[in-house]
Each structure stands twice: as C-alpha cells, then as structure tokens.
Amino acid sequence: MIPRYQTIAVIVLLVASVVMGVVLWQLRERAHLRLLAGEDSAPTRAPQVAPAEQATLLVASDAENNLLFEVQSLPLPKDPGTRARAVLGRLMDLYAAPGAAHPIQGGAASIAQVFLLPATDAKEPQHADTQLAVVNLTGAFVATHPSGIETENLTVLSICATLHSNLPQITQVRFLVDGQPRATLAGHADLTRTYLTADAIPTEGVHP
C-alpha cells in the first residue's frame, strides 16, 4: 500500500507540472505575438538614399595659396542644413586624404553640424531669403589643425566659398567649436567674426 504522504506528493507534482505547462504555453504564445508585431512594424521599403548630384568644392591649395574649383558627384539631401554638412564633409575628406594639397586631419567627422539662420543683415525685403550658416567644428579637428595664418585662412575661406557655391542663399558664415565660441582656429584665423561668403570666392583659380 502506497503511503498517504507519497500519494499527496505525486498529486502535488502532477498539479505543478500542469501549471508549468500552461505557463510555458502562454509565454510561447506571447513571444509569438510579439514576433508577429515586430514583423508588421518593420519597414516594407528600404530607406531612400539621396541621389548623387554635382557639387562644386572650393579646395585650398597650400602651394598656390589659393582656392581651386573642383566638381564632385556625391549624394546631396534636399534639406539645406544637411546638404551643407554633406558638401563640407566631402571637402574635409579631401583634406584628410593622402597627398592632399591642404592636409588636415579629421575628414567629414570634423563638421559636427551646420545650422542655417536668417542672415543678420536681411532687413530689406529683397534680402529676406539670405541665410547665415553656423558651422560647428569638432574640438578634435581644431586641436590637430596646422597653425599658421595662411593655412588657417585657407581652411576658413574654403568652407565659406564651398557653402556659397552650393547654397547661394548662404551669404554669411560663423563658426563654433563643440558648440561654443572660440577666438581662433589654431592661433590666427579669427572665429569670432562673421564671414561674408562673397569675399571668399576667388577671383582667380582653376574653374570647372
């Protein structure tokens, strides 16, 4: 004869097994539903890539102490601020490439953001659509930039001229470093002033 306590233990084990089976089944169903919900919420189309367009870069040349026109094909978003950052990123990539005519470290990551605001002198109706570009450089880029009045000025002017060549509405440029004002780029080029893009376009140089 089976002792009473053993009978109770078997019954308890059977009940526990049934309960565990029900819990596991419910967990499985919930996981399956979450999986289906994730599949339903997944994008049905691949994200769109900006089409390639021609961009005119004003590339600094240390040997000639001038800016040279260079046309490149690259994806350009429609949003003006993102577009400005894209063209400046390509310009910085050229400077970071081996054998660059104006060697600077950092590449496209040197441009943290580009903000577009109404130009500070856009008080007249005919100038209301002109813009001020605020270029936020990274601290790492500034820390490694070669010091010298000519090389620093070439960097600043190439940024201003490249912005205006691709977004003509940009007539003014100011600079920040890691989101903060800074006196100079690497000891010489003034970053506290507002640059006029019209003054940055070279009167001579190699045009496309």
Core attributes:
single chain; 208 residues; alpha+beta; 2 domains; two-stranded antiparallel sheet; 5 helices; 6 strands
Order of helices and strands: HEEHEEHHEEH
Uncertain segments: 39-48, 122-126
Shape label: elongated
What is the count of β-strands? 6
Domain module tally: 2
Structural class: alpha+beta
Order of the strands making up the biggest sheet: 3-4-5-6
- Strand fraction: 15-25%
Radius of gyration: 30 Å
Helix content: 25-40%
What is the distance, rounded to the nearest whole angstrom, between the alpha carbons of the first and last residues?
Answer: 103 Å
Total helix count? 5
Q: Profile the largest sheet.
A: 4 strands, mixed
Q: What number is the mean pLDDT?
A: 84
Produce the secondary structure layout:
Elements: H1 4-41, E1 52-61, E2 66-75, H2 80-96, E3 111-118, E4 131-137, H3 139-144, H4 149-166, E5 170-177, E6 195-196, H5 197-200
Parallel strand pairs: 4-5
Antiparallel strand pairs: 1-2, 3-4, 5-6
How would you portray this structure in words?
- This protein has 208 residues and is of the alpha+beta class.
- It folds into two domains: 1-33; 52-200, no CATH class.
- It has helices spanning 4-41, 80-96, 139-144, 149-166, 197-200, and strands spanning 52-61, 66-75, 111-118, 131-137, 170-177, 195-196.
- The protein has a four-stranded mixed β-sheet with strand order 3-4-5-6.
- The protein is elongated and about 110 Å long.
- The chain starts with a helix and ends in an 8-residue tail after the last helix.
